[in-house]
From TrEMBL:
It is a single-pass type II membrane protein. One of its GO terms (cellular component) is sarcoglycan complex. Belongs to the sarcoglycan beta/delta/gamma/zeta family. The keyword Disulfide bond applies. This is Delta-sarcoglycan isoform X2. GO terms for biological process: cardiac muscle tissue development; heart contraction. Keywords: Cell membrane, Cytoplasm, Cytoskeleton, Disulfide bond, Glycoprotein, Membrane, Signal-anchor, Transmembrane, Transmembrane helix. It holds the Pfam family Sarcoglycan_1.
Length: 255
């Protein structure tokens, strides 16, 4: 087309006044697909929310009620470190409850220690330790305690059925019965020994009812007064009192 005709053609075209507006958006099948995906996403959210509420309802996961773990076999709780190594472990089974760890502690709500156990020692922090078993408590080795006391109006019994019972203290052992009797019974020998001190029998009355009697009897007398005699081996015996000592006459008891 010649240049003159092209120029005349442009001048003949109507000119539009003002800026031109271009529509931007998604039309046609793309718009319908977008609405479909949005609707599908909303349906999945509702289904997920419904499934979550159903699981919480079935498993009894509520804020106000307690949490229960139920299993036909064992229930194991593990605490792991960064290298997935087991630090502590709690296993509950049909026969026993087992806890594995370096230390086991039981505390009150206020934080006071009631019980503690590790490789070195077992600590009972309660004010009183009560053993309710009919057979009592068995200690295979030694026990250290500042006080062993029975309940009020109950008897305290320390017994070793097949071996000896030893009580030792560097500053003394005191056995006191404030409102009753104290008895020491044995099958063979009862020894009271003091290595560096003395043995005191401090009482208003001292009775030795089963001491042997000497054979000496003064003629024509039936006295009820006796003197206590001591043999060279430490044996005691009774001899009827006379005007003088009669222990030398009854030395046959010491044989």
């Amino acid at each position: 087309m010649p240049q003159e005709q092209y120029t005349h053609h442009r001048s003949a075209m109507p000119s539009s006044e003002g800026p031109q507006v271009y529509k931007v958006g998604i039309y046609g099948w793309r718009k319908r697909c977008l609405y479909f995906f949005v609707l599908l996403l909303m349906i999945l959210i509702l289904v997920n929310l419904a499934m979550t509420i159903w699981i919480l309802k079935v498993m009894n996961f509520t804020i106000g009620n307690a949490l229960y773990f139920k299993s036909a076999r064992n229930v194991t709780v593990n605490v792991l470190n960064d290298q997935t190594k087991v630090l502590t472990q709690l296993i509950t089974g049909p026969k026993a409850v087992e806890a594995y760890g370096k230390k086991f502690e039981v505390k009150t709500v206020s934080g006071k220690l009631l019980f503690s156990a590790d490789n070195n020692e077992v600590v009972v922090g309660a004010e009183r330790l009560r053993v309710l078993g009919a057979e009592g408590t068995v200690f295979p080795k030694s026990i250290e305690t500042p006080n062993v006391r029975a309940d009020p109006f109950k008897e305290l019994r320390l017994e070793s059925p097949t071996r000896s019972l030893v009580m030792e203290a560097p500053k003394g052992v005191e056995i006191n019965a404030e409102a009753g009797n104290m008895e020491a019974t044995c099958r063979t020998e009862l020894r009271l020994e003091s290595k560096d001190g003395e043995i005191k029998l401090d009482a208003a009355k001292i009775r030795l009812p089963r001491l042997p009697h000497g054979s000496y009897t003064p003629a024509g007398t039936r006295q009820k007064v006796f003197e206590i005699c001591v043999c060279a081996n430490g044996r005691l015996f009774l001899s009827q009192a006379g005007t003088g000592s009669t222990c030398q006459i009854n030395t046959s008891v010491c044989l």
